[in-house]
Specification:
The structure is a single chain. The protein has one domain. Helix content is 72%, strand content 0%. The chain is built from 13 helices and no strands. α2 crosses α3 and α4 packs parallel to α12. The protein starts with a helix and ends in a 7-residue tail after the last helix. The C terminus is likely disordered.
Length: 316
């Protein structure tokens, strides 16, 4: 591995470690507050940080979307994604949430066919099928474990996050980054703000500070991811996401007394192996024209997506 790829891998590992701490805070807050409230304040508190980032950009143009339909679809998918993932963290073990979210590269590959017109060969389709079998191993839907709304939420979160990633690859070259960043944030604040009176619970200053950490942590983690994609090849950087499973085991055990069972461990291994096959196959230039799974495997919504900003001027 060259020095630039090594630097990219280290930066990505750091970013995903911060993301794991960010997720642990969300899980802790989820024991007290509805996901609507957590999403609303985490996005609202992220506005000043994102605006500072946008002020430094040199782009000139309108804030009106070039592709309003696709922009609206992406915005709605991000809202669903955040609500579902935050709810899943609050209700099921972190390792199970990660195992199901790790199916995103597989789902992105499948969605890239109808949306991007991508050609997917038999090897990648085989990896997708095996990965989905891994999801079944985690869920064990035939009576071996109780399936909950949290499991369904994690699956919907993975699917909606995959849709966000593929749509971003479809319109990312046409839309300004400020449009791609601000519209989902405005949509989340508006929609969650309408729902907030129905679920609002007063928050002590400590919990409000924890929400501020969620916002800052998301931005810091994504800054590391942007730097990682600039430093190293996507085929090296993207698989670092799977390091989060190690963090999930540690954080789940230390803070929430969670111990992964055999089914979760086995299913996670199958999903990770399948995801790695997809990522490595897409890293070959003659396999994928758009490489949707390589540059958009992380959860979107609060902070900029690495695929959106990784090709920007490094001084931005």
């Amino acid at each position: 591995m060259g020095s630039s790829n090594l630097r990219g891998a280290v930066l990505a590992l750091t970013g995903f470690a911060i993301y794991s701490l960010h997720d642990a805070i969300i899980k802790a807050l989820g024991a007290h507050y509805h996901p609507v409230q957590i999403v609303f304040f985490s996005v609202l508190l992220g506005f000043p940080l994102i605006l500072l980032m946008l002020i430094r950009q040199r782009e000139v143009g309108s804030l009106r979307p070039v592709r309003p339909g696709w922009t609206a679809l992406r915005m709605g998918a991000i809202m669903i994604h955040l609500l579902c993932v935050f709810y899943a963290f609050a209700t099921i073990p972190i390792t199970q949430v990660y195992a199901l979210i790790f199916a995103m590269p597989l789902l992105i590959t499948a969605l890239s066919v109808p949306i991007l017109g991508e050609h997917v060969g038999p090897r990648r389709w085989a990896a997708v099928v095996v990965g989905l079998l891994g999801v079944l191993i985690v869920l064990r839907p035939f009576g071996a474990t109780d399936l909950t709304l949290g499991h369904l939420s994690a699956l919907v979160g993975a699917l909606s996050g995959s849709l966000v990633a593929v749509v971003m690859r479809k319109i990312g070259q046409e839309e300004r980054s400020v449009v791609m960043l601000l519209y989902p944030m405005l949509g989340n604040v508006f929609a969650m703000g309408l729902l907030l009176p129905l679920v609002y619970q007063p928050m002590p200053i400590l919990h409000f500070g924890a929400l501020a950490l969620v916002s800052v942590g998301a931005l810091v983690a994504m800054s590391f991811m942007i730097a990682a994609y600039r430093a190293g090849e996507a085929v090296v950087v993207a698989p670092m996401q799977y390091s989060q499973m190690l963090w999930a085991v540690v954080l789940g055990y230390v803070f929430f007394a969670e111990v992964p069972d055999t089914g979760t461990a086995l299913g996670s291994a199958v999903i990770v192996a399948s995801g790695l096959i997809v990522l490595l196959r897409e890293g070959k230039p003659d396999v994928s024209r758009t490489q949707p799974a390589l540059t958009a495997t992380d959860r979107p919504g609060i902070a900029p997506d690495p695929a959106l900003l990784s090709d920007e001027d490094p001084s931005v």
